[in-house]
Amino acid sequence: MNDGLIDALRHNAWAMRSLLSVCKGLTQSQWQATATGTYGSIAATMWHTISAEASYCARLMGEEPGWDRRAKEPPGVADMESSIVDLAERWDRFLAHPFDAERTIVVKWRDGIDRDVPAGVFLAQALHHGNEHRAHICTILTSIGVPTPELGVWNYAEATNRATPKREAH
Predict the structure, then answer these.
(1) Which tens digits make up the pLDDT trace of 76-97?
(2) pTM, 2 dp
(3) What is the dihedral of CA 157, 75, 34, 136, to 10 degrees?
(4) What is the pLDDT of residues 13-45, one digit of tens each?
(5) CATH code given to domain 3-159
(6) Helix crossing, 77-95 with 42-61: angle to 10°?
(7) Pairing state between β 114-118 and 104-108
C-alpha cells in the first residue's frame, strides 16, 4: 500500500547521506559558510533539515527518536550521519504498515491557532523540506568552490540499482 513512497523517502535519506559525505571534507570555516538567500550556515542548515524531518517522522509514528532532535546547536558530522541512518530506518518501519494519509495531527500554527493537518501533508513536507534545504547547502558549497554531488532522483535510482541497464533480448 505504501510502496510508492518507499523510493521517495529512501531518495531523501540517500541524498542527505551523499551531501553529508561531501561535507565531511570541509574545514571548520567552510562548515560555517553561508550564502545570501539560504537558511544559514552549512552546519545549521544540515541540522535544521535533519531535526525537522525527525519532527515530522515523530508526529507520524507517535514516537521520538533516541537522539535529541531539539538540540539547538548542530552536533558533529558523525552524529548527523547517525541521525540520517536512524531516520531512514524509522521511515522504512513507518511505511511497512498501512497508514491513513487523512488522519489529522493537531499542529499549533505560526499564528497561534491549532490546525488539523493530514498525515499525508507531513510526508509531503518531509520530502519538500529536504529538497529545499539540500539546494541551499549546494548553493553555499558552490559559492565556496566545493563541487556538489548529483542528488536527483535519477542519480539515486542509478546509484542504488533502482535503474538498471535493460538486458538485450536474445
Answers:
(1) 999 999 999 999 999 999 999 9
(2) 0.93
(3) 30
(4) 999 999 999 999 999 999 999 999 999 999 999
(5) 1.20.120.450
(6) 30
(7) antiparallel
